[in-house]
């Protein structure tokens, strides 16, 4: 296994014709490559504009007894690639839809790819590559070490239930929305995942599956033979099919 970088992905995977975009990331950065300028917030990296909006939202929430903390912000292509390959190689647990462990050896390559995609993004397609998206929890009611990022924690009786109710009512006032909602997105519901619409909407418009294909063809990606022929469909389902920005579509009932 290749460890500690050395695969030369930092900006070197895309041809020179792919240049600047209208958003604060250049094209390689849209796929998690390169080194975007990030602001650190509680140990996570966010684009500066996103960090400012988050701080304003967290301050307002704190006044109402909700302590919003960030479990995960920016994540690089290299990091997502390591997660993907570890799952493909059985070095990291692989879970089915119900969270039960699956033996990767019992699956053919196509089934293995689909099983990984249930819970992990294909490298290059994670919204965490953009610096606009973050996973949040209520650090006054659960520690980061105990947090599992499962939907039950965000239901009304869970430690992050009050946080989730507050976000459904107020996140849109600060530009944030929940892109992953049941029935409204290709990715399963993630009531902890927020996205900053003023930047992530134009970034999604810049996302190009042909450029992603160029990146993946050159990356040391497991299951490449399964991924590349289906890339357009995977991008449609997991990248473009998201819940719309604005107030939450499904207020807690
Ligand atoms: Zn997330």
What can you see in these coordinates?
Pfam families: VanY (PF02557). The chain has a four-stranded antiparallel beta sheet. Strands 1-2 form a two-stranded antiparallel ribbon. A two-stranded antiparallel ribbon has the order 4-5. Mean pLDDT is 89; it is low at 1-12 and 14-20. Strand 4 (94-95) and strand 5 form a beta hairpin. The chain has nine helices and eight strands. The protein is 34% helix and 11% strand. It has a single domain, classed as 2-Layer Sandwich (Muramoyl-pentapeptide Carboxypeptidase, domain 2).
Short descriptors:
about 250 residues; binds zinc ion; alpha+beta; four-stranded antiparallel beta sheet; disordered N terminus; M15 family metallopeptidase; peptidase activity; VanY-like_core_dom; DD-CPase-like; 9 helices
| Helix percentage | 25-40%
Which blocks of ≥5 consecutive residues have pLDDT under 50? 1-12, 14-20
pLDDT averaged over residues: 89
CATH domain topology: Muramoyl-pentapeptide Carboxypeptidase, domain 2
- Taken from the alpha-carbon principal axes, the silhouette is globular
CATH architecture: 2-Layer Sandwich
How many strands appear in the DSSP assignment?
Answer: 8
Query: Secondary-structure element sequence?
Result: HEEHEHEEHEHEEHHHH
Pfam family, one: VanY
Domain D-alanyl-D-alanine carboxypeptidase-like core: 48-198
GO biological process, one term: proteolysis
GO molecular function: peptidase activity
